[in-house]
Design goal:
The protein is an alpha/beta fold. Helix content is 46%, strand content 18%. The protein has helices at residues 16-26, 56-64, 83-92, 102-111, 125-138, 144-158, 173-187, 193-201, 209-217; strands spanning 5-9, 30-32, 36-37, 52-53, 68-74, 77-82, 95-99, 116-121, 166-169. Bound molecules: adenosine-5'-diphosphate and guanosine-5'-monophosphate.
C-alpha cells in the first residue's frame, strides 16, 4: 500500500461518520474504505455507499477465500475490510481511511504497524445517549435494546483507547474536524507549526485535560 492508512474507531454514536465526512471535505486525497457487513441497511443507507451489504453465507465465503484485511463480529453482525480497498487506494494514489471497531483496529495495528490510529470519544455518556437517540429518531427506528447495547459497549471500547496513537473528543464538530485535519496533514509531513501543535495535543501519550475529563465522565 503506497499511501497512509488511517484507522478510526469510536463507540457507535460518537459522531465518527459525521467527523469523517467533515474531514474529507477539509482535506483531499482521502479515500474511504467501504466495509462489508451482514447488518441490514439503516435509514437512507445504500448498498455500495455506506457499506457493501451482504449475506452471512457470502461473508463467510470471503473469509475462507482470505479476501479480508480484517473482519470482526460486532453487535451480532459481521463487518470486514476487503483487501481490495487497499488496492483501489493504491491505484488512485490516495490515503485510505478505515472506520472499524476496536477488534478490527487491533488486528490492523499488528499487520500494518505504520498505520495511524485515531480513537474518537463522545464528551460524556449522556451526550452519547442523546446522539444515539437523535439518530434513531431521524432514521425512524427506535429500538431500545440496540441503544442500550451500544451504550454499554462504549465503556468497554474506551478501555482500549491507549492502544491508539491519537484520541480526540468529538464535542464541538468544527474543533474535532480541525484536529483530524491536523493529524492527517502531520502524517503526510504537510502540516504547518499550528497543525503540528494541534496534532501533538491529541497524542494519547499526552492524555490532555480534555481527554481525561471525557474519560472521567465514563468513570475511567
Ligand atoms: P457514528 O458514526 O459514530 O456511529 P454518527 O456520525 O452517525 O455516529 O453520529 C451520531 C449522531 O450524532 C448523528 O445524529 C450526528 O448528526 C450527531 N453528531 C455527530 N457529531 C456531533 C457533534 N460534534 N455535535 C453534535 N451532534 C453530533
Ligand atoms: P454501524 O453498524 O453503527 O455502522 O457500525 C458498528 C460498528 O462496526 C462500528 O464500531 C464500526 O466502526 C464497525 N465497523 C464498520 N465497518 C467495519 C469493518 O470493516 N471492520 C470492523 N472490524 N468493524 C467495522
Amino acid at each position: 500500500m503506497a499511501g497512509i492508512l488511517f484507522i478510526i474507531s469510536a463507540p457507535s454514536g460518537s459522531g465518527k461518520s459525521t467527523l469523517v465526512s467533515e474531514t474529507r471535505r477539509l482535506v483531499g486525497g482521502l479515500d474511504f474504505s467501504i466495509s462489508y457487513t451482514t447488518r441490514q441497511p439503516r435509514g437512507s443507507e445504500q448498498d455500495g455507499v455506506e457499506y457493501h451489504f451482504t449475506t452471512r453465507a457470502e461473508f463467510e465465503r470471503m473469509i475462507a477465500a482470505k479476501e479480508f484485511l480484517e473482519w470482526a463480529e460486532v453487535f451480532g453482525n459481521y463487518y470486514g475490510t476487503a483487501l481490495s480497498a487497499l488496492d483501489h487506494a493504491r491505484e488512485n494514489g490516495t490515503d485510505l481511511l478505515l472506520d472499524i471497531d476496536v477488534q478490527g483496529a487491533l488486528q490492523v495495528m499488528k499487520t500494518m504497524p505504520k498505520a495511524v490510529s485515531i480513537f474518537i470519544l463522545p464528551p460524556s455518556p449522556e451526550v452519547l445517549e442523546r446522539r444515539l437517540r437523535n439518530r434513531s429518531q431521524a432514521e425512524g427506528v427506535a429500538e431500545e435494546s440496540v441503544i442500550e447495547r451500544r451504550l454499554s459497549q462504549a465503556r468497554t471500547e474506551l478501555l482500549k483507547l491507549d492502544d491508539y496513537r491519537y484520541a480526540l473528543v468529538n464535542d464541538v464538530l468544527d474543533q474535532a474536524a480541525s484536529e483530524m485535519r491536523a493529524i492527517v496533514l502531520v502524517a503526510r509531513g504537510a502540516g504547518d507549526s499550528a497543525d503540528v501543535a494541534l496534532a501533538a495535543e491529541c497524542l494519547t501519550s499526552q492524555h490532555s485535560g480534555r481527554l481525561d475529563a471525557a474519560l472521567g465522565t465514563f468513570g475511567l
